[in-house]
Write a structure and sequence with these properties.
By secondary structure, the protein is of the alpha+beta class. It has six helices and eleven strands. The two termini are 28 Å apart.
Length: 238
C-alpha cells in the first residue's frame, strides 16, 4: 500500500521525468501519427488547459496506458492500427460509484463501528468498503472508501451525485452500524473501473509500428494487473 496516498507510488516513479521537464500534466493526446519529418518516429497532437493545442514530435514509440475505450477511440480518430482497435472493442468494463467519508470525531487509536478494516459486501448497493485510516502512513482521522457494486453502479450511472451519495451513505450505515453524520462526504464515478471481459493478454506491442498497450483491462481489474501489464510491455520494448 503506497504512503501517504495511493498516487505516491506512481508519483515517485515519475519524479525523475518531472524533474527533467519531460512530463506534461493536464494534457490530453487527441491524435497520434507518423512524424512527417521522420516517418520512423511518432508525432502527438494534444489539447491542454483552456483548450491550448500543441504538437510534440520525434518520439521513438507510443504507449497507450489508458482505459480500453479511450485507447480505441484514439486509434480510430488517428486512423492507426485498425486491427488493434477492433480487438479493443471486445473489452467490457463496468463503472463504479465510489463514496468517500471522513469522521474527525474518531481519531486513532479510537474508531467507529466494526473491528474489521475492510470487507467485501453482499449488500445490493455496495461491493467493497475499507477504513482508509487503517492503511500505513495515513492520517489519524477515521476515513472510509465505499465502492458500489457493478450492477448498482450501472443502474444508477446517470443519477446525480447527491442522490447517489444519500443512497450509498444509507447502505454504509446498514453494513457498519456507523450512523454518525460524517464531516466530509463525496462521491465519484469511475466510468472505467471493473473489467468484466479482459483482452486476454498481458500487453500488446507492435514492434514494427513501435506502438504498445498496457493496463489492468488486458488481464484483469486490479492495480496488480496494471503493474504486471506495464512491466511485461517494458520488457518487450527493451
Amino acid at each position: 500500500v503506497p504512503a501517504p496516498a495511493m498516487s505516491a507510488l506512481a508519483g515517485q516513479w515519475a519524479l525523475p521525468l518531472r524533474e527533467a521537464g519531460s512530463v506534461e500534466l493536464q494534457t490530453r493526446v487527441t491524435r497520434i501519427e507518423p512524424d512527417p519529418l521522420n516517418t520512423q518516429k511518432w508525432q502527438l497532437h494534444t489539447k491542454g488547459v483552456q483548450d491550448s493545442q500543441h504538437v510534440y514530435s520525434a518520439f521513438d514509440a507510443v504507449v497507450l496506458a489508458v482505459p480500453a475505450a479511450h485507447a480505441r477511440e484514439l486509434l480510430q480518430d488517428s486512423e492507426q492500427c485498425p486491427a488493434l482497435a477492433t480487438q479493443l472493442a471486445e473489452v467490457r468494463v463496468a463503472p463504479c460509484w465510489t463514496l468517500m467519508l471522513a469522521f474527525p470525531q474518531a481519531v486513532q487509536p479510537a474508531h467507529l463501528g466494526p473491528q474489521w478494516n475492510a470487507a467485501r459486501s453482499t449488500h445490493h448497493r455496495i461491493a467493497w468498503l475499507a477504513r482508509e485510516s487503517s492503511k500505513p502512513g495515513r492520517g489519524a482521522i477515521e476515513r472510509w472508501t465505499v465502492q458500489a457494486s457493478d450492477a448498482w453502479s450501472h443502474e444508477h450511472l446517470e443519477d446525480d451525485a447527491p442522490r447517489v451519495q444519500a443512497k450509498l451513505q444509507k447502505a454504509f450505515a446498514e453494513i457498519t452500524g456507523i450512523r454518525t453524520e460524517p464531516a466530509h462526504a463525496e462521491v465519484y464515478l469511475w466510468r472505467d473501473a471493473q473489467t468484466l471481459k479482459p483482452l486476454g493478454k498481458t500487453h500488446v506491442w507492435d514492434a514494427r509500428a513501435r506502438l504498445g498497450l498496457c493496463g489492468d483491462y488486458l488481464i484483469g481489474h486490479r492495480v496488480e494487473d496494471a503493474f504486471v501489464s506495464g512491466l511485461e510491455l517494458a520488457l518487450s520494448m527493451a
